[in-house]
Design brief:
Elements: E1 11-17, E2 20-26, E3 52-57, H1 72-90, H2 93-98, E4 99-110, E5 120-130, E6 133-142, E7 145-158, H3 169-175, E8 190-191
Parallel strand pairs: 3-8
Antiparallel strand pairs: 1-2, 3-5, 4-7, 5-6, 6-7
């Protein structure tokens, strides 16, 4: 009769940092490798500059709800405006005429309220593509403070047939440049509207 081994699993641990307690995971020898969540990229990982589009937001009195802050539904319109403006800013006119974008899903994480008179910027970053889908992260910031984070999934649609269209590599490269040959992380480039 063979020896029975108890399965080892990843255990969440914590480590102290200047900003408080930060969760991280570590592997026990022989553990299931599918659950690995590194706290930072390995030294051999190549990082590239991923452009971030800076879209200014003007808060109007119509955006304010009965609680005195920006209504939650307004963020959906702002995300739509910011991502579409990003596409219009960086895509070539011929490509822009042939493709449309349809929002599939938004996951909104509210961190702090925004009020009338606040200076707000929507920072849009493409985070990946797969088939006809693209994902974007939009951060709504008041100065250095992160107010809202929105994770969105969009579908690329052919403008004439209105059917989903695979995102070609040259289109994906507009938002997600190919990996560079140098080592180490870089700060994201910021694309500002003209």
């Amino acid at each position: 009769m063979g020896t029975r081994h108890r399965a080892r699993t990843y255990r969440p641990e914590t480590k102290a940092s200047q900003s408080g307690i930060v969760p991280f995971f570590f592997a026990t020898p022989g553990a299931d490798k599918r659950v690995v969540t590194p706290t930072h990229p390995p030294h051999f990982m190549t990082m590239t500059r991923i452009p971030t589009f800076d879209h200014p937001i003007l808060i109007s009195a119509a955006d304010i709800d009965d609680m005195g802050h920006v209504n939650n539904t307004v963020y959906l319109q702002w995300v739509q405006d910011a991502v579409v403006q990003y596409w219009q800013q960086v895509s070539p006119p011929a490509v822009r005429r042939g493709l449309l974008w349809v929002a599939l899903q938004h996951n909104i994480i509210y961190r702090m309220p925004l009020f009338l008179g606040d200076k707000v910027a929507a920072l849009v970053t493409a985070t990946g593509t797969r088939g006809s889908r693209a994902s974007f992260t939009t951060l709504f910031k008041r100065g250095d403070d992160l107010a809202v984070e929105v994770l969105s999934s969009w579908c690329c649609v052919d403008a004439s047939t209105r059917r989903p269209r695979r995102i070609a590599e040259d289109i994906a490269r507009i938002f997600l440049p190919l990996p560079s040959l140098h080592q180490g992380p870089e700060k994201p480039a910021v694309v500002r509207p003209i």
